[in-house]
Amino acid sequence: MYSIVQSDHELLQRYINGDEKALAFLLKKHQRKLFSFILMRMKDRAVAEDIFQDTFYKVIDSLNAGKYNEEGKFLPWVMMIANNLCMDHFRRNKRMPIFSDCEGRELHNLGLTADESKEEKLMREQNIQQVKLLIELLPDDQKEVLILRHYAGLSFKDIAEMTGTNINTALGRMRYALLNLRKMIDEKALVV
Hints:
Shape: elongated
Distance between the termini: 48 Å
Structural class: mainly alpha
Oligomer: single chain
CATH class of the largest domain: Mainly Alpha
Number of helices: 8
Strand content: under 5%
Number of strands: 0
Mean pLDDT: 78
């Protein structure tokens, strides 16, 4: 009845026309990417699960209230809702995000090679921790674009839509984020 190749637009239309299962399929289609994004930002699995659920409640409420403007951008719209809920959580709790995937593994550590020695692994992990701390020192707008691009895998066009800016602004923020990171890495003499 449903297929992964069906467009988000088609599934949304089916939901709007009364097919509740179409929305369930659509949400399941994007579940892994969305949850990984939230968990990467929150680090705490329980909090991430709460925000994940809240995201879907907001999506359903917005769809039922007719607040979604169909432009073929369902996933970026959902990611924007999740991002806003994460930011609300940080503001309430004054915490900073850490980066993990949906299995709880830190995303930076997925590149481990089989012939890496224990010393090399330890050095790499220490540098990764230091880079994470440096990322947290970036201005919020630069940090947001860096996370959305490198950890959530969004295009600059989608990032621009999510952040309410244009593509050139998103590209500029990424450029400055990378320049600032390089400068801080050079100052700390890190090898990454």
